[in-house]
Automatic annotation (TrEMBL):
Its main location: membrane. SUPFAM superfamilies: OmpA-like. Keywords: Cell membrane, Membrane, Transmembrane, Transmembrane helix. This is OmpA family protein. Belongs to the MotB family. It is a single-pass membrane protein. It comes from Rhodanobacter aciditrophus. Residues 151-270 form the OmpA-like domain. InterPro entries: Bact_OuterMem_StrucFunc, MotB-like_N_dom, OmpA-like, OmpA-like_sf. It is found in: Cell membrane.
Amino acid sequence: MKNSGLVIRRVRKIKRGGHHGGAWKIALADFALAMMAFFLVLWIINVASPEELAAIEGYFNDPKGMSTAGYSNKPIDLGGSPAKSVEQKLDLDLPEPGSTSELTDETEMRLGNDGEELERMNAMMEEELQNIEFFQSEDNNMRIEITPEGVRITLLDDPDKPMFESGSSQLVPDMETTLVSMASVFAKTDNPIVVTGHTDATAFQGSDFEDNWDLSSARANAAKVALLEGGLNPGRVAQVIGLADTVPYNRWDPASSENRRITLTLLTDEAYRRLLSQNRRRFGGEPVELAPGLTPEGVF
């Protein structure tokens, strides 16, 4: 080293790309999540029923209002009260609303002479009810249809001419007069009658009733009372029930005024026997034979 001169070493530093961290991973995850949510929405739109689509649309249009969803203003209800679903309906094997065709096959309409009897009774009802002043206008809301259970007369509500006072079971005078007049028409037959009350899917708001179940039941009973006042034999009444919004007449619009209705069904003999049998099985007490030596002390 003594014979060599001073050695100066120069190091040239080249700036290269530094460490970028994990920010790109977060961005990629966000993008993947957004794509998954997008395709999930497309799938829901494709498989959802019209009622579900109406409920979803109603929530996003008015999250805190009644809208067409009408059940909860929270996507996740932590208050302990489950939201209603328009899909959870009672399956009563009813025909499509407003599209019941007149059955001509006697086998479909039950055995025996019920087919001819239904045709005759349906024609008689149409002729007699047309004489009632309420039904003479062209925009009446009465439907007479032949169903597997019998002849069904449906009285649909009209926002301009309602059947009941708003949120009440009190019949308006015109509808009460109509039902009283219909009793004289029903007196020309001896078929048992089922009276059913229905509401739309709008949640009930008021103090007189707890919910739509109470309201529909009270309205069905009010219709029954009007028929009895018109002279209908009480023994002809086979059943009076309220179904709330579980069987909508207009299935595409659960909030439609058509769903607020009273139905009067004149049952065939076979349908009446089947109804009695079902009621006995569901609500009646079956006789039970106890063992001779069995005592209450031995059971309890």
